[in-house]
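notes to self, project folder thing:

trying the whole complex as one job this time. last attempt i did each chain seperately and stitching them together was a nightmare. two parts in total, labels are on each line so i dont mix them up again. if this works i'll redo the older ones the same way
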Amino acid sequence: MRESKNAARNGDGGQRRLLRLLAVAIVVTGLIAFAVTALLVNIFERKQEARNPFFRVVALTDDTEDPVVWGKNFPQQFDMYSRTVDMVRTRYGGSEALPRTPTDADPRSVVAQSKIEEDPRLKRMWAGYAFAIDFREERGHAYMLEDQTFTQRHQKPQPGTCLHCHASVYTAYKRLGNGDIVRGFEKINPMPYAEARALVEHPVTCIDCHDPDTMQLRVTRPAFMEGMRAWKASQGIPDYDVNRMATRQEMRAFVCGQCHVEYYFKGDEKRLTYPWFNGLLADAALAYYDEVGFADWTHAETGAPMLKAQHPEFETWNQGIHARSGVACADCHMPYIRVGAMKISDHHVRSPLLNISNACQTCHKLPEEELRERAENIQSKTFEMRNMAMDALMAFIDAIKEAQEAGVPEENLVEARDYQRRATFLIDFVEAENSTGFHAPQEAARILFKAMDHLRHGHIALSAPPAPTIVSSAVHETP
Amino acid sequence: MNKTTVVGAALVSCILTGALVGVGGYTFIYAKGASYMTNDPAACANCHIMRDHYDAWLKSSHHAVAVCNDCHTPHDFFGKYYTKARNGYHHSWAFTTGWFHEPIQITPVNREITEAACRYCHQDIVDAMDSDFAHAGALSCISCHRYVGHMK
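result (full assembly):
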């Protein structure tokens, strides 16, 4: 009796153990099945990502200006493009968001830091010119139109030409030129700024660089087309048509070069012109301005006929090792990134120093810190040279003023003022260039060195009877 | 313990195992698991992470003489499949979770495997160089010839 009870208990115990084992097996198998299914779904999703990711939800035409509409077909690119509102400093560039009290005339509640307050030498360099009134660090693409609309530089009247690069002006050119952008360009250039401003709505948008049918890159700015034609002609290539003759990789720099260049407003029609008739070097631009007898303004302290250099990124990049190696603007400023299975250009255009992994490490297999130090090493040395040149320029302005007061003969003064014009343009060529020398370190150093040479000759001109001086003009342009 | 219980338990176990084998097997086939046992470079680009490298290899100087495995796995049977298994595990983990550095970077272990692969084929030339530069320590082939396999 007792034995049979024990046996029954053993039987019960065995069954319970078995059931417990089964329960554990179910839980373990369940967990494994859970994980395998999750993996399966993950693989499925990854495979879906690799399928054609483009959905055409709206029809784009050559008149679709609003980037929001383009963004419906290209949400990822649009999302990145929208992030150019970011205000981030790098060591030598970038912008800081400074609060300001909005007024009726200027409703901006945030602006970038003032460069002329940071370095008052700039005010004196540009004395008598609009840049001495207001010049702030450039903000991202999103602000180009707003910041131009409200800059205090409008205290001196500005023409409609400015919109060539500060607005999405392609459709406006087409409208005013009845389909011919060059005619539209010629109509808008001489308008007063406010009148022309009413014709445009957006900062740079999709249509300024992309063909709406094929999404291929294209140049839409007449001044760049004409500038390239002039430059290529100087190299013996006639009738260069950038949209027909440039390679795909060249276009990845040319669309940026439409605006990131030195320029001037030619004649009463204020035609935007890039001074590339003798080449892309700073010296070549200077030689061209001398040929045509152009001056941006008269220096308030010395009376010198001055030139203002403007953001010559495209020209400077052209002299550097990256251009020589076939690396385009977009490779570093809009590097490819992976979004799911898609490889797309990062439309959040910004300093590569804020995006070193994608911008630099694709080619340079080095740690981020090392790459940053290499870039900043170039920049700090350029900045040191730039500061020495600025001090020397201030001293030269002092010297001209003293000489004027001391009654130095006009001939000597004319020669000295010419050196002031040259030195200022060259210093400004490096100062206004948005890489603090990085785009072409040796070229930046050469330009500043040449500026110092001009200042040296300028001092000689003030102190000695006028004699023919020779400034080295043997300049070899990198093809 | 009666017979019915045992049979029931066995049946449940079999169903569970079968379900697992079924789901696992389907996943294996769907993920082209068998392709990873082969030498076909296309298998390495099953995941789109390697797409650029695969495309670049198609245009490379070594395209005609070496596939992925020739440079990225050791030249012995166990070493090759151990490396495939180890890298396969790491790559699956990275690709599934999305936790990896962009652009992707070779690990020190895999760099050594590639270095050894260079020497496996080019031993005669490398011997001459190594003896010339013995005092400078081992020279790395791929520090200079980085692009022979693929641009990136």
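what i see at first glance: Chain A is about 50% helix and 5% strand.
need to look closer tmrw
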